[in-house]
Known about the structure:
This protein is mainly beta. It contains one helix and 29 strands. Helix content is 8%, strand content 45%. The protein has a four-stranded antiparallel β-sheet, with no helix packed on it. It has a four-stranded antiparallel β-sheet with strand order 3-4-5-6, with no helix packed on it. Strand 8 and strand 9 form a beta hairpin.
Amino acid sequence: MIITNSRLKLLITAVLLSLGLLLIMFSIVSTAGEILEKQTGSLFEISNISAITDDTNRFSDPNWSPNGKKISFAASANSGVWVIDSDGKNLRNLTKEAWSGWRHIWISNSVIVFHCRYPYGKSAQSYLKSVNVNSGKIESLLKSKSLTPPILTSKGNVFTKNRELKRNYFIDEDGKANKAKKEEFVFYLDNNLRLLMFNPDGAESKYISQDEKMVDYFEVSPEGTSIIYSSMETIFIYNIANGTKTKLGIGSRPSWSPDGKYIVYTVIYEKSNGEDNSDIFVMKVDGSEKTQLTSTIDEVEYSPRWSPVGNKITFYSGVTGKIYTADIKKHR
Length: 332
């Protein structure tokens, strides 16, 4: 049989396409369900990605203890607070109250403050409680029909607002509620998920995210001078001193590095079948040098958090509900 130039070209093209398809299929099989490291920038790299929980329970929103030795997280539907050693040992359930896992905060290496609400309906009451991580003892701090979840102020103190009585409180390290101090800026979300800032001494509230709807997360910088937040898959930074706001780019659930120079965050992609996929990135505080840290197929890595020491991150899988840790190292 005589093969013409055109037929030869078609044959070569078919072979190359077949090889490419095999490579794609192999890639999918080898990476599906596995979280892999991938560095596409020059800022940081991660290694030793490990699941510290199994798929017996589904968890979300991990938080480091101040000394970095433990990690707390929310149970499915925020129905409780769990804690585990950072090496994956000693998994324990601390609370089971409704919504207690949502925005819980460490106030010391042994005490977590959380918000819960029950029973359901018009008679529901809001509670602010603390739990001792070592003993498991739970104490009720405040009770009202309308308490905000615990919030960190610009100076790193824990704050809650009693909307019913129009009073503001700080929670001390020993878990006691006191009236709000002055000269500390507080950030919280209104009922429409817009971000506000106010001074607890009575200064007028100011909308930070007036133009952005549905703020899903915010976090004050370690030095208390700026706040980062995400809205509709976009990350912003707000300078508290001069009131300027800067758009940093696509992403959600941003979190500060301990030195306040970098931000770790999630970027979510929508696949052709309509399902979500995501990876973890890091960037400088000015939005430059964006570096992709993970590369996965059919996986949703979410809510990354930097350890207090700065040598690790934690995050959770939106697919399996597992909590992960990874070593993170700066290139230069």
